[in-house]
Amino acid sequence: MSIAMSIVDIAESYAKREGASKILKITLDLGEHSGAVAESVEFCFDACSRGTMAEGSVLEINRVKAEALCAGCGTTFHPETAIFICPRCGDIGANLVAGEELQVHKMEVE
């Protein structure tokens, strides 16, 4: 619920700053390792946007796949487990370079 409330707050703040009267669409980047569940965010967004400039707007969610970079050999791969083991060299020193996103990417306003 707090994530959806933050999305509405961010969107309204931007829309007001730009002199908009209504928010038509919000595009959210949501990484698979962000800790947020897309379906829950969508459900809560409808409730949180009631009575705001975002009421009736479309929430589009771009799901971002996780991508890890091996510190040992430089291979980029999609981690299959919570422990990021490089499929090329077997190193466990990989770092996420994508998949933790949780951000408003763009908006359409009028």
Structural account:
The chain is of the alpha+beta class and 110 residues long. Helix content is 25%, strand content 32%. The protein contains 2 helices and 6 strands, in the order H-E-H-E-E-E-E-E. Helix 1 packs across helix 2 (38-49). The two termini are 26 Å apart. The model has no long low-confidence stretch (mean pLDDT 95).
List keywords for this structure.
three-stranded mixed sheet, single chain, elongated, three-stranded antiparallel sheet, 110 residues, alpha+beta
Strand order of the largest sheet: 2-1-6
* Percent helix range: 25-40%
Distance between the termini: 26 Å
The arrangement of helices and strands along the chain is HEHEEEEE
Shape: elongated
Overall structural class, as computed from helix and strand content, comes to alpha+beta
Largest sheet: 3 strands, mixed
Give a brief rundown of this model:
The chain is an alpha+beta fold. 25% of the residues lie in helices and 32% in strands.
List the helices and strands and how they pair.
Blueprint: H1 2-17, E1 23-31, H2 38-49, E2 58-64, E3 67-70, E4 76-77, E5 94-98, E6 102-109
Parallel strand pairs: 1-2
Antiparallel strand pairs: 1-6, 3-4, 3-5
Helix pairs in contact: 1-2
